[in-house]
Amino acid sequence: MAEIPTAAISRLVTYLRILEQLETQDISRTSSSDLAERAGVSAFQVRKDLAYFGRFGTRGMGYTVPILKRELVRVLGLNQTWNVVIVGVGRLGQAIANYPGASDYQFQYVGLFDVNPALVGQQVRGLTVRHTDELRDFTRHNTVDMGFLAVPPEHAQDAAQALADAGVKGILNFAPVVIQPRTLERGGPQEISDEWRGLIVENIDFLAGMKRLAFYILNPHLKDAPTPEDPA
Amino acid sequence: MAEIPTAAISRLVTYLRILEQLETQDISRTSSSDLAERAGVSAFQVRKDLAYFGRFGTRGMGYTVPILKRELVRVLGLNQTWNVVIVGVGRLGQAIANYPGASDYQFQYVGLFDVNPALVGQQVRGLTVRHTDELRDFTRHNTVDMGFLAVPPEHAQDAAQALADAGVKGILNFAPVVIQPRTLERGGPQEISDEWRGLIVENIDFLAGMKRLAFYILNPHLKDAPTPEDPA
DNA sequence: TCGTGTGAAGTACTTCACAGCC
DNA sequence: GGCTGTGAAGTACTTCACACGA
C-alpha cells in the first residue's frame, strides 16, 4: 500500500535536522556518505530515500546544503503554517508547549485545553488554558490543523474523540493507549465514522520506549546494527 | 540480522498494555483476533509475534489473560528491577520523572543529574538533583542500568558520552539528535570505543513526530492502513 | 468445531552494482 | 575521477492457508 516506506519519512526528518546543523556551521556542501554517517544509516539508503522525491544532487559533486534543505522542507510540508492545540496541560503537556524548536517550522500553538479546574484560566506560554468542553466551539472560530494529546491514559480515547469531532486532521498521541476510530455498525461491515475518515494518528510513547530498551539490553543481538557500513 | 522484527517488539509492548487493561476489567480470556482489534493490527500478526517467543495459547480456546501477561512480562525483561538515571531535569526531564506508570514494572529512578546550578540541590520526586559531573562517581557506588537523556540538543552528545563512560547499558534519548558512538581510528577501519560496545540507544523524538504528522496529513495515502482487517 | 501455531507465499524494504553526468 | 540516481537482486517482514490439538 505504501509506495514510500514509513521509515524513509523518519529518516528524511533526520536528514533535514542534519542539514540545519550543517547550515549553522557554514558548511554548504555535503554528500550521501556524509549524511549517512551523521544519520547512522547507509549511503545507499540516503540516496534511495531522496530519490523517492526527486533528484536534488549533482553527480560527481554531492548536494548543496541550502538547496537540499529547502527541498526537504517542501517535501515534508514544513513550508506552511500548522496550527496546533494541546489537550492535556499537565507536566507533560506544558513541557511540550515550552519545548524549543517547534516554532522553527511554523508550528504554532493556538490553544491549550484541560479539564482540571486548577489549570483552566491559567496562562501557559502566553495562552490561556481553556476547558476541554470548549474545544469544539474553539475550532469553529479558529483554524486548527492538529492536536497533541497529553492527557492521562484513561481519558485519551475520549479526548481523541473530541479532537476528531473538532475536525483536526491529525493527532499526535502521547498517551500509552491505542486510539480507536469510532465505527458505525449498521448491519454491514464496520464502517469508520465520518470525523475519523482520513484522520492521521501518530504515537509518541515513552513508556513503550523504556520497555523496548529493557528488552534490547537483554537481547542486544536482536537490535539492528547501530551504524551500518558505508559503501566501499 | 534481526531474526525478530523490531516492529514485533513494539507490538508486544502494546499487547502487554492491553492485557493489563483486560485484567483490570476482570476479563480473563482473550484471542488473537480480540487482541488484534484492540491493538489495531491483524490477528495473523498477533499470532506470529507471539510465536517468536513460544506457544502461549490453547487451540480452540484462545489465551488466558494472566498467563499471557506473565509470559510477555518475562519475554520483555520486565520481571526484574531496572535502575534509571535521568540526565537533564528541565521541564521535560521532570515530566518524565513524574509520569505515572514507570514504576509499574520495577523501573526505579535512582539519580537525577543536571548542569544548571539553579536545579542542582533541588528535590524532584524525592531525589536530590546532582551535577552531571558527579555521574561517573555516582555509578561507582550505585547500580545503574539505563540513562534517560533529556538535555538540550546541543548537549546531548556530551551527555550521552558521560552516560556511556558511566557504564550504563542503554540510553533512552529524548533529544532531537543522532547519538554517535565514539570511534577510535588507529590506522585501520573505525572501531567503536569500548564504553559504547553493546550499548543500546533508543530514541523518542517528538519534534520528529510532529513533522511526520505534518507529512502524513498532506499525504494520507502513504500512511499504512490504521486498522487492518481481521481474517474471515 | 474453534482458534492457535507455522511453513509457504507474497509483498515491502534495503542493499547492491553500475550507468550516467558533472 | 567522483558521486548521484536507479533498475535489479537480495533480504526481511507480513499475510496467508491449513494442519493440529482442545
UniProtKB/TrEMBL annotation, chains A, B:
UniProt superkingdom: Bacteria
Compartments, as annotated in UniProt: Cytoplasm
Pfam families per the UniProt record, alphabetical: CoA_binding (PF02629), Put_DNA-bind_N (PF06971)
Gene Ontology biological process terms, A to Z: negative regulation of DNA-templated transcription; response to redox state
One of the record's GO cellular component terms: cytoplasm
Keyword NAD: yes
Xref: InterPro entries: CoA-bd, NAD(P)-bd_dom_sf, Rex_DNA-bd_C_dom, Tscrpt_rep_Rex, WH-like_DNA-bd_sf, WH_DNA-bd_sf
Residue ranges constituting the CoA-binding domain according to the UniProt record: 77-178
Gene Ontology MF terms in the entry: DNA binding; DNA-binding transcription factor activity
Keyword Transcription regulation carried by entry: yes
Main location: cytoplasm
Residue ranges the UniProt entry marks as DNA-binding: 14-53
Annotated binding of NAD(+), by residue: 88-93
Keywords: Cytoplasm, DNA-binding, NAD, Repressor, Transcription, Transcription regulation
Family: Belongs to the transcriptional regulatory Rex family.
Function comment: Modulates transcription in response to changes in cellular NADH/NAD(+) redox state.
Subunit field text: Homodimer.
Protein name: Redox-sensing transcriptional repressor Rex
Biological source species: Deinococcus indicus
Taxonomic lineage of the native organism: Bacteria, Thermotogati, Deinococcota, Deinococci, Deinococcales
